[in-house]
Amino acid sequence: MPGGILNGFKSFVERVVPKNLPIPGVGNSDEDEKKDVWDKDLHLYNREGFYYVLIIDSNINDLEREQEILEETGCNVATASTGGEGLDRVSKDKYDLIMIFMDLPRMDGEQTLKNLKASAVSKCRDSKIYAILAETDKKGDQYYLNLGFDGIIRKPTEKCVMEYIIINHAPKKMLPEDERTLEYIKKMAEDTKRLKRCDVRLSWGLTNNENNLDVYKDAARKFCKKFEPAYNAAMDSLFLNNKLGYMEAVREMREEARSLGAIHLADIFDDHVNMAKDDTFEVAQKNWKTLLKEWRYVVTGMADWLGEPEIVPSSFEQEGIKSNGIWISESDMRERVEDIITALLDDDQEYAASMMKLLLEYDFDDLIRRKLNRGSRLMDTDTEFAIEIFRTI
């Protein structure tokens, strides 16, 4: 097409087509094609009608965000803040897609779904229905699928996930012909959902890592590889009552976790920093298992997403060593630990190792077992440090 005619066509299109609506073959410069922005936009072609969505959510802030995301795609969105209000809407209007928050007041999401399906006046019997779950909801996806929902959305709602749901269910004639954008949204949605299962918000992490998925993956990989040395550094300081060392180690991991979008883990790190700072160090010592559980949960989930589960060391599984079920007395335990210390001081590593193996077969308090496991791993590499840990038992 000659340049003058092409420019005239572009001018005409800009006047009659809604702004920002993608036009196949028009307005995509080479520079735009090279951009690798993760937050791509979906715009439905709605000249032949709308895709109608109903959102039922009692959290007004979340409801407004969910509505805004879907309206930006070109959907026609209605809202309700209670299950009763939602049922009233489906009796009057037909919606292609319904999203129901599970923690609704009075009539919760599960009951709203049952009433909607049983309603004789509902105009939405063929609608796709998604469950919106609170961030703290630990029920598996299959639980809600078994109830009859067509899919799951976990808060905080992510733009790419909402867009991908629309891509899956909107009529094909409404979808843009830009396959690259569609595939990119699909990939981002799948990554976002996988990471959210291990309490990581990908969108948050990307904004802190140049909005570049490769940069983010490198940071995530380093974070996972750092798990063992960082955890050892923190726990060693904790067990040796080194408050400043513990605060320094935990504060560093807090910033890295937050940068990656592991917000819940970062909050737990922050709690431990404050515990140490406020002279309640013993509280941190009693609550280290909560920290370990979430930390391990995040790094194993991220390593699995990276396709590199081997980067998370298996040594920490020693925390769950099966015992003979017998609780050893404190005096007997301390006597055996003293024998191990003596053997190490005499450079009798073989005897110390055999004594440790027998000792670890018994049941202990979690804190004692952690110290014994840590010390046993250090006996060959840092005998003096191992002895220092054993002396705190």
Question: Can you give a write-up of this model?
Answer:
Helix 11 (227-239) packs antiparallel against helix 12 (243-260). Helices cover 57% and strands 6% of the residues. By secondary structure, it is α/β, with parallel strands linked by helices. Helix 3 (60-72) links the parallel strand 1 (52-56) and strand 2. The chain has a 5-stranded parallel sheet with strand order 2-1-3-4-5, sandwiched between helices. 31% of the residues are buried.
Strand order of the largest sheet: 2-1-3-4-5
**Topology order in helix (H) and strand (E) letters:** HHEHEHEHEHEHHHHHHHHHHHHH
Overall pLDDT confidence: 85
Q: Which structural class do you get from the secondary structure elements?
A: alpha/beta
Low-confidence stretches: 1-36, 316-321
Q: Please describe the biggest sheet, giving its number of strands, its sense, and whether it closes into a barrel.
A: 5 strands, parallel
Give the total of beta strands: 5
**CA-based gyration radius:** 28 Å
Estimate the helix proportion, in percent. Answer: 55-70%
Strand content: 5-15%
In DSSP terms, counting alpha (H) and pi (I) runs of 4 or more, how many helices?
A: 19
Overall, the morphology is elongated
Terminal Cα separation, in Å?
Answer: 83 Å
